[in-house]
Design goal:
heterodimer, A: 430 residues, alpha+beta, Cytochrome Bc1 Complex, Chain A, domain 1, 5-stranded mixed β-sheet, 11 strands, B: 453 residues, 6-stranded mixed β-sheet, 19% strand
């Protein structure tokens, strides 16, 4: 059972300018993914400059020296590919999935914008508006979104890097100048602050030569310092009720600070999460959705709401989000969640149930590895956060080795009443 | 590729070689004596198997007073059988690293399942049990009614849902393709006898196709496993599908009143074709060029140039007995007439002038690329194979997909667009605040105003 039943091959090296490169070959489908991850995210932002990481993700599609505004999207699409970018707490990523004969095209596009962006007053102004419009549509106009993006970090964290709104304020965006933007690009979008992964239908010698051709002459920059993310220990529970005029159904968030990434407790909490929230046989589904009919939908994971176990970085929470039946109250739902937690603390998990959770973790992982885009993303995240992409092959065995005793101990150590944070999101009559 | 030998010109996109020849994995076909069609495909990349058991049992077979029945049968199949409670099914599925659910579309009801490959026998046992012995327990039916009612209320609060619903009614007329969702009344009428009757009529082996794809055991052993689970399933003639009679397209303009809307939701288009139609690939390309992505004509015109809307796109919905072409956009109330003029002009134009060679090449690349990407996961390929069978298409449909796309020429595309994409005789549905936007619609035809139900 512990024997690994897949192995994702990869080769890792570094260009002289510091760019980390990972190549992973698989010829079964003529598709290749280019995945570029930069070590800068919303938690890297400075006071007065919130929203910069996300604004930058937009600026990256505004054109570079040889690929003018609009070209990136059009070129990828008209060559049969798909692409996107996204901003995370600890990194920003960009990818292209292409028919495999188009690898050079993707490298040309990504290297062109790493070499230099077209940053002008015009497109900066334009993207400030685009980010605001995105905020209005995707956050301000969506139920639960404002509560989760703006209220939740403030309630759950005390260190400003963790607690500020990860999408940023309109005031800070408006205040951004061309100089700020150019400096941010130079510091963080340097080859030595990035990992490039090519995964899928490629030939290693060709991929190496092309990568060298397109990226080797991009200038490195001094390595930016990592922000101090440390949180003061939580000594008392925190809770808040938040009205939400867009919500039709109430929701409850319950969270506890999580362990260090890659510590034994980290693995224990990932398995514990599978017991609580992994699939239809999980305790939340069977006991709350089906049994008590009190919960309508739920999600939970280490790193919630903006990260997942694979890109979790301490300090962050194990968070549980539940949409609940309005015939129940927030405190009642909290009581039910606490009962589930108490049960994990008091009784070792039965062997059959643990076996199901292990199978859930193993099968979910194997399913996920089917696409070149997912393999590339995992390799990049493990390199950036662990300096060890081989976790793509070995991580599962750490999870499968977690014992009932470790789960019980982790439940007792992390789910402490005085470390609890609760946000009750209530529909507000309009 | 001899890039290193050339001086690198960074100012232009690099030339790239042609896509290497690619063949889909071989499909083995067989039929059991009871009529169950079987498709088997080897894929050993990962220790996984994916299965589809599809029936000609989609929403078009719903009784007239019970729209949404097929959908509810699908949802409830996995919520209890004569020998397993819902919880037991969920636990057994989890034990094999699996997934098991059923989904209903206008034509078909499909059980989708997968598991770690070592558990294939249990997976087949579970699929067989839910397909043949679903019990529709009272408490699960009651929970389903409660949840679906809430879901429907949330759907009906959205203008886009109302627009799609009305558009289907206008285009498909009295054919059941016009009723793809339940109503509050039909949800309240849901009952165990209705669910069981539907299952007994339609979930029979001679009305089904079983697709298995993945790291499979040797062929003889696999066929034995399949026979053990499905051979004693009794065939029975299913009721015939509804006659494929559709209204002849004629101009119609329906304004669905949604008081207080600050936006107007537009749907326009008409009856189109099935995947088997000779015009299908031409229309697919035409629809991609007109409104298939962020470089399409509608997107560039309505969003980028004129700024009327956040999105404007069109879609082709190919069904088994017919199909529909539609343009969708949601615009600010004050620019409704201007936006409509722009949309209609684009629809006229694609039928009047040949598309450019570049546009056509780009659209062909876009669609072929999307096609190969869908081959990366077992689930996507299994679903496509099931759809090919259920739609009655030839088994080489996927193999020939890319070459058929490549063979479309501008003249052929224009002719197909002329038949199915012009504003002439198109249905036009607008959802919005009727008193506020009605006056802007007067020049577009005779308006029939309806209340959002």
């Amino acid at each position: 059972m512990l024997a690994p039943d897949f192995r994702i091959p990869f080769e890792k090296y570094r260009l002289p300018n510091g760019l980390r490169v990972i190549l992973s070959q698989d010829h079964s489908v003529p598709v290749v993914t280019l995945y570029l991850i930069y070590g800068v995210g919303a938690r890297s932002e400075q006071k007065g400059r919130t929203g910069f990481a996300h604004l930058f993700e937009h600026m990256m599609f505004q054109g570079s020296q040889n690929a003018p505004k609009g070209a990136h999207f059009k070129i990828v699409e008209s060559n049969g590919g798909a692409m996107n970018g996204s901003t995370h707490p600890d990194y920003t990523d960009y990818f292209e999935v292409l028919p495999s004969n188009k690898l050079a095209l993707g490298l040309w596009l990504e290297s062109d914008r790493m070499r230099g962006l077209s940053i002008s007053e015009d497109n900066l102004a334009n993207q400030k508006e685009a980010v605001k419009q995105e905020r209005r549509l995707s956050f301000d106009n969506q139920p639960y979104a404002t509560a989760i993006v703006d209220r939740w970090p403030e309630l759950a964290f005390r260190n400003w890097h963790n607690s500020h709104s990860l999408i940023g304020s309109f005031e800070d965006l408006d205040a951004a100048t061309l100089t700020d933007v150019a400096a941010f690009f130079k510091t963080y979008y340097a080859p030595n602050n990035a990992v490039l992964v090519l995964a899928g239908d490629l030939r290693i010698p060709d991929a190496k030569r092309l990568t060298e051709t397109y990226f080797a002459d991009i200038e490195p920059q001094p390595q930016p310092p990592l922000p101090d993310l440390s949180e003061p220990p939580q000594t008392a529970p925190r809770s808040q009720v938040c009205p939400d005029p867009l919500a039709k159904v109430p929701a409850l968030v319950v969270a506890y600070p999580g362990p260090e990434r890659r510590s034994p407790d980290y693995y224990a909490l990932v398995v514990l999460d599978a017991l609580l929230s992994g699939g239809e046989s999980s305790r939340f589904h069977q006991n709350l959705v089906k049994g008590r009919k009190s919960v309508v939908q739920f999600e939970a994971n280490l790193g919630w709401p903006f990260a997942s176990p694979t890109d979790y970085k301490h300090p962050a929470n194990y968070g549980i989000f539940l949409l609940y039946n309005p015939q129940f109250t927030g405190p009642q739902i909290l009581g039910q969640v606490e009962e589930e937690i108490a049960s994990l603390q008091q009784h070792p998990v039965a062997p059959a149930e643990l076996e199901r959770a292990r199978t859930f973790l193993r099968s979910t992982r194997i399913r996920r590895l089917q696409t070149s885009a997912a393999r590339a993303a995992l390799l990049a995240q493990y390199e950036l956060l662990d300096a060890n992409p081989d976790y793509i092959n070995t991580e599962l065995s750490f999870l499968l080795g977690v014992t009932p005793g470790q789960i019980q101990a982790a439940a007792a150590a992390y789910f402490l009443p005085h470390r609890q944070t609760v946000l009750d999101i209530q529909p507000e009559a309009q | 590729m001899t890039l290193s030998a050339q001086a690198l010109d960074r100012t232009k996109p690099p030339h790239t070689p042609d896509l290497p020849a690619f063949r889909l994995p071989a499909v083995f076909e067989s039929t059991l004596p009871n009529g169950l069609q079987i498709l088997l495909v080897e894929d050993r990349r990962f220790p996984l198997v994916s299965a589809r058991l599809g029936f000609q049992a989609g929403s078009k077979y719903d009784p007239e007073d019970l729209p949404g029945l097929s959908e509810s049968v699908g949802v409830l199949l996995t919520e209890g059988t004569t020998s397993r409670a819902a919880r037991q099914i969920a636990e057994e599925v989890a034990t094999i690293g699996g997934a098991l659910r059923a989904d209903s579309s206008p034509d078909a009801l499909i059980i989708e399942a997968s598991a770690l490959s070592e558990h294939l026998p249990t997976l087949l046992e579970l699929i067989s049990d839910v397909a043949r012995h679903a019990a529709f327990p009272d408490d699960e039916v009651a929970l389903r009614m409660q949840n679906r009612e809430q879901e429907l209320l949330a759907q009906r609060a959205q203008a886009a849902f109302l627009a799609s619903e009305k558009f289907a009614q206008v285009v498909f007329g009295s054919h059941p393709y016009s009723r793809q969702d339940p109503t509050l009344a039909s949800i309240h009428r849901l009952s165990r006898p209705a669910l069981s009757d539907f299952r007994d009529c339609f979930l029979v082996p001679n009305n089904a196709v079983l697709v298995l794809l993945g790291a499979l055991p040797p062929r003889a052993q696999l066929l034995d496993l399949i026979r053990a689970r499905f051979l004693d399933w009794q065939p029975k003639a299913p009721p015939p599908p509804p006659p494929p009679r559709f209204p002849v397209p004629r101009p119609s303009l329906v304004l669905v009143n949604r008081p207080g809307s600050v936006q107007a939701d537009i749907r326009t288009g008409k009856l189109a074709v099935t995947r088997a139609d000779p015009d299908y690939f031409s229309l697919l390309l035409a629809s991609t060029i007109l409104g298939g992505g962020a470089s399409s004509r509608l997107f560039m015109n309505i969003r980028e140039e004129k700024g009327y809307a956040y999105d404007a796109h069109c879609s082709l919905q190919p069904l088994k007995d017919s199909g529909a072409f539609s343009v969708a956009t949601q615009v600010r109330n004050e620019v409704l007439a201007a936006a409509l003029h722009a949309v209609l002009a684009e629809m006229k134009d694609i039928a009047r002038r040949n598309v450019s060679a570049d546009e056509l090449a780009d659209a062909k690349n876009y669609l072929s690329g999307a096609f190969v990407m869908r081959l990366e996961t077992q689930g996507a390929l299994a679903s496509q194979l099931a759809a090919v069978k259920l739609m009655g298409l030839p088994i080489d449909y996927l193999e020939k997909y890319t070459s058929r796309l490549r063979s479309v020429e501008p003249g052929k595309l224009r002719a197909a667009a002329g038949r199915y994409m012009t504003p002439k005789n198109a249905a036009l549905v607008v959802v919005g605040d009727a008193p506020n936007i009605g006056p802007q619609l007067r020049t577009f035809g005779k308006i029939s105003v309806e209340e959002a139900g």
